[in-house]
Amino acid sequence: MSSASSCSLEHRNDSVLQKINSQWHKQSLWIYTAIVLAHWGEHLAQTVQIYLMGWSIPESRGILGIWYPWMVKSEALHYGYALVMLIAFWILRKGFVGRSYTWWMIAFWIQFWHHIEHALLQGQAILQHNLFDSPVPLSIAQLLIPRVELHLFYNTAVTIPMVIAMFYHMFPTPEEEAQMHCGCAWHTAPRLVTSKVSTT
Where are the transmembrane segments (predicted)? Predict the structure, then answer.
């Protein structure tokens, strides 16, 4: 590849990332939120199946897992989602400023650890060798907390700072809004535009 075409490709990539964090930021966050909520729906459905309906854990597969049981058992699918979440957090970070950026990065680092746990599970599935001779793949925190409750905790720990970040992003201070390049800020009342009028 020539240096000219390489620079052109790099410029296009930069342009897309800039748009995602400026004029496309609101739409990108809506799509991301929809994916997160769909994932939450699966976790909540599984929780209801276990604790309210009295199903056994192997039978409690969420919503899609009822029709596609392999989805719940696929470590690759769980790892893929954790990785997509992590990448999306990183890509969308530049659209945030001030307090929203701080909370967004807190969510990113929690998700980074969540992703490490899933990578460990995926590694055991690939190598066909589980930690501590466990009958199923095992993560570090799973030594203390059962898997269903653990991943419910992880998703809660990621979602809380993510929601706080979005709140501050939608309702920024005037100083923060001045640094924003997207149209994500909500205004409960029209902002007054003042101008100097000559009295002479």
Answer: 76-92, 152-171
- With helix as H, strand as E and coil as C, how does the chain read? CCHHHHHHHHHHHHHHHHHHCCCCHHHHHHHHHHHHHHHHHHHHHHHHHHHCCCCCCCCCCCCHHHHCCHHHHCHHHHHHHHHHHHHHHHHHHHHCCHHHHHHHHHHHHHHHHHHHHHHHHHHHHHHCCCHHHCCCCCCCHHHCCCHHHHHHHHHHHHHHHHHHHHHHHHCCCHHHHHHCCCCCCCCCCCCCCCCCCCCC
Q: What is the pLDDT of residues 3-55, one digit of tens each?
A: 555 555 445 556 888 999 999 999 999 999 999 999 888 888 888 888 888 88
CA distance 30 to 42: 19
- Please say whether the beta carbons of 121 and 79 come within 8 A: yes
Domain boundaries, the chain: 3-179
Answer whether 0.85 is exceeded by the pTM. Answer: no
C-alpha span between 109 and 52 (Å, rounded): 33
Length of the chain: 200
Cα–Cα dist 143/145, whole Å = 6
